[in-house]
Design goal:
single chain; six-stranded antiparallel beta sheet; 24 strands; alpha/beta; eight-stranded parallel β-barrel; Immunoglobulin-like; 3 domains; TIM Barrel; elongated; Elongation Factor Tu (Ef-tu), domain 3
């Protein structure tokens, strides 16, 4: 298990406005985030997308343009210029925060020139079934990056670098079109028969020149930015052999851990565990099954067995490779994977990922700063006290109370190395609850306060037990009361 109590924040959400100035905001915000207990930030894709300053970053155009060249209608990306990006990373490092870069290597979108191609058209629902072996299409599949004019790298992308596309510009129709001379990667997820193809122009990882170029880019990117790790997009669509070799080369060259977490979007924990095993644990994965458990509980009207909340999750079977999260840019309201956790259950979910040591928790920007879909409501007032409790209270032996379908809890006894440490968490998915839980005999006679402020303090008895409470459908966490000295202005 991780023992450093580290916490990631995903520092963006999907609907940030064009020219949002995120890099400037982060430069100013970094010291405050560090004080709150954030130890790492996952930043959005920093390179130019096909919509320029309007692009979130996942429809990739030029990996070498970090907001430096006049391409796709803008110099800056949605988040700012290259220099602003580098300044933000520097500010994070000065504050003691690691930076993880979002890397999208599955596809590119909207090249600079058209090519006339003969393709094989496949059934969208089963990419092993051929519909037409010799269809003629027109594809915008040649990338020359005229705005960059060969600076940093002069590699030209054309149809030989891609496996296929979903667009015929000749007839203005959509489909799944495999390029002649290329094959879908065999070692990908088996959804839709073969889930190599996702969107845009699918990068061909069977082409050695492409693989070598992406390694060159990775070396340039790490050297240029000084980032500390990666968030890898769309793993189930990319040949399983690529990223282990890519990461090994970069880690060897830079002699850095380069912590990496990948998005393998499956609710089946066995798929996630198989990927980790086959890649020899070289990266972590987001615990998608745990996210779906949060989502399902939040919509169950109290009918979910709360005691099974961790069952079938990556956190339960391989916590060292699990990155836990509540929501993200894909699950937030309005997105294709929309499965957002209803607001009443957000405190419960954050308690599960922040107030237990298994996994590496990731806070969502939209929960911390607010989302327009939630009328800007922020849960910073809930998350901040949990961060404080995680860093100051969550130590010593843990005792779990997961034997009731509607009420669960756990405690930490604290230890001598952390003054005033010790923690008790209690949550319910419908009725109000009380529960006697053991926190350690050395706490006898102490008064423990509710960090949420919702419930009355609890006195620990001579046996080291306290009777803790939470309101209906709510969560409370308790820790030893510490008299705070008022600040003098």
């Amino acid at each position: 298990m991780r023992t450093d109590h580290g916490v990631i924040m995903q520092y963006f959400e999907w609907y940030l406005p064009e020219n949002c100035g995120l890099w400037k905001q982060l430069k100013a915000d970094a010291p405050n985030l560090a004080k709150k207990g954030i130890t790492a930030l996952w930043l959005p894709p920093a390179y130019k997308g096909y919509l320029g300053a309007k692009e979130v970053g996942y429809a990739v155009y030029d990996l070498f343009d970090l907001g430096e060249f006049d391409q796709k209608g803008s110099v800056a990306t949605k988040y700012g210029t290259k220099q602003e990006y580098l300044d933000a990373i520097k500010a994070c490092h000065e504050a003691g925060i690691s930076v993880y870069a979002d890397i999208v290597l599955n596809h590119k979108v909207e090249g600079d020139a058209f090519e006339n191609l003969i393709v094989t058209e496949y059934d969208p629902n089963d990419r092993n079934i051929v519909i037409n072996e010799n269809r003629k299409i027109r594809s915008k599949s040649k990338f020359t990056f005229p705005g960059r004019n060969g600076k940093y790298n002069d590699f030209t992308w054309d149809h030989t670098c891609f496996s296929g596309s979903d667009r015929d510009e000749r007839s203005h129709t959509a489909g799944i079109f495999g390029f002649k001379g290329a094959k879908w990667s065999a070692d990908v997820d088996d959804e839709n028969g073969n889930y190599d193809y996702l969107l845009g122009l699918d990068i061909n990882f069977n082409n050695p020149a492409v693989v070598a170029h992406l390694l060159d880019w990775g070396e340039w990117y790490v050297k240029t930015t000084g980032i500390d790790g990666f968030r890898l997009d769309a793993l189930k669509h990319i040949d399983i052999n690529f990223f282990p070799a890519w990461l090994k080369e970069l880690r060897t060259k830079f002699k850095k851990e380069l912590f990496t977490v990948g998005e393998y979007w499956k609710g089946d924990v066995n798929k996630l565990k198989d990927y980790i095993d086959r890649t020899e644990g070289c990266l972590s994965l987001f615990d998608v099954p745990l996210h779906y458990a949060f989502h399902n509980i939040s919509e169950s009207c109290g009918m979910y067995d709360l005691s099974q909340i961790l069952s079938g999750t990556l956190t339960a079977i391989d916590s060292m490779h699990s990155v836990t999260f509540v929501d993200n840019h894909d699950t937030q309201p309005g997105q294709m994977l929309e499965s957002s956790v209803q607001e009443w259950f957000l405190p419960h979910a954050y308690a599960i990922i922040l107030l237990r040591e298994e996994g590496y928790p990731c806070i969502f920007y939209g929960d911390y700063y607010g989302l327009e879909a939630r009328e800007g409501r922020s849960y910073q007032h809930i998350i901040d006290p949990m961060l404080e409790a995680r860093h100051e209270r969550m130590y010593g032996p843990r005792h779990d109370y997961f034997d009731n379908c509607d009420v669960i809890g756990w405690t930490y006894e604290g230890d001598d190395a952390h003054k005033h440490s010790g923690l008790a968490v209690l949550m319910s998915d419908k009725d109000g609850a009380e529960r006697s839980m053991y926190v350690g005999a050395h706490h006898a006679g102490e008064v423990w306060e509710d960090g949420t402020g919702a419930c009355e303090p609890v006195t620990i008895d001579e046996g080291g037990n306290g009777v803790f409470h939470c309101a209906p459908g709510s969560m409370s966490f308790y820790h030893p009361f510490v008299k705070r000295t008022p600040s003098i202005c």
